[in-house]
Amino acid sequence: MYHFQDISEIIGTLNEGKKLIDEIFKNRKRYDYEYEQALELLGEGGEVKIQRLIDKGIIKENGQFLEIEDQFLSFFEELMQVNETINISSFNEHIKIIKENIDYFSKENSQQRKHRYFKIIKKDLSRIGKICSRNIDDLIRNIDTTFKTEENYQIKLKKLENFKGKTEEIQNLIAQSRHLIDKEEVSFFVFSADEELQTIVVELKKEFNSANHNLVEIQRQLLQYINQVRHNSQVVEKVKKLKLLMDQVELEAQTNIKEILNERKEVLFEKRKTYPLKLDLDILEEDEVYQLIKEINQNQKHKERRKVSSAEAIDVNLLSQQTESVYFINHEEVKRSFLAQGNDLFNFVFHYEFPFEVSYIELVGCYYKIINYYSNEIEITEDKIRYEDRYFAKVYPKRKKYA
Fold this sequence. Notes:
Arc Repressor Mutant, subunit A, DUF3375 domain-containing protein, coiled coil, 3 domains, two-stranded antiparallel sheet, 4 strands, mainly alpha
């Protein structure tokens, strides 16, 4: 296996083969990206570039096909948030690492080494929150994709039930993490905590609370999906049995389909059918009927169409070009810019570079409208800002939550 010397070499190699890696990644689920396609894509010198990527373990040959090596594929999928695997093992692994390093910390006498273990503990605690959030993201995306795209009912049902098991595993790991912080290693987190560790623990508990709410909602949605799939599966199986009986000309003999159809009233909702009236030939030979047909035909020919009166000519003065510029504040654009930075809303709005002159009243109106329109994307704090004898609440972008 090839060993890279440094990060620069990895980035340089990926950059050199980015065109091919991108194409193989797009076709990763088909497993049929051929070597010849890669040569055609890269053009002159393509064979050398492909071999270099193979030698450095970024892509691999599988017969006549090319694939991305598993470690790089997992990295790309996780980074792009398109991975189909819910990686709970890393969550559990970090909990074990934290326990081990707390034990090392308590037994270590050297302050320098104690500090090193302390840094590792804080780093792994921060990672736990991110791993938990990422797993919930992956769960939501994979559940939705499975329910909408999986065609086989048995596989769909099995996948959804497996996802239900994953939610329970994540809930269990969250409970283990809370137990570690609040009970199992409470002395470490009380007596050894500095300001940074306290902040990490507070943020981690917030993420756990949010994750638990999201997991409850995911379980509710999963139960609804599973019940719907089971119902649809039963319907499909019944239709298959009916089709088989119909093909064998045993439908009426083996079922009570006639009784069921007679009891149902769907025919009431069908459109009323109309049939042309055909006169008897003997009647058409009578003089009175012939005369009546001629009169009806004459009336149809001479029926006058309603004439629409023409409009008067347009005044020439109205055709002169006159333009009037009207400016308005695009609250959606202001909101997006606000969410992309960390300043409070009041200062952001009052320092925002509008493409036209905006009055004080309009700025205040913009501040309040963003609060009113996008209340689910912002967080209103108790802190106040005083401006021209008026007080305005400090408003910040809301932390990311998961549905």
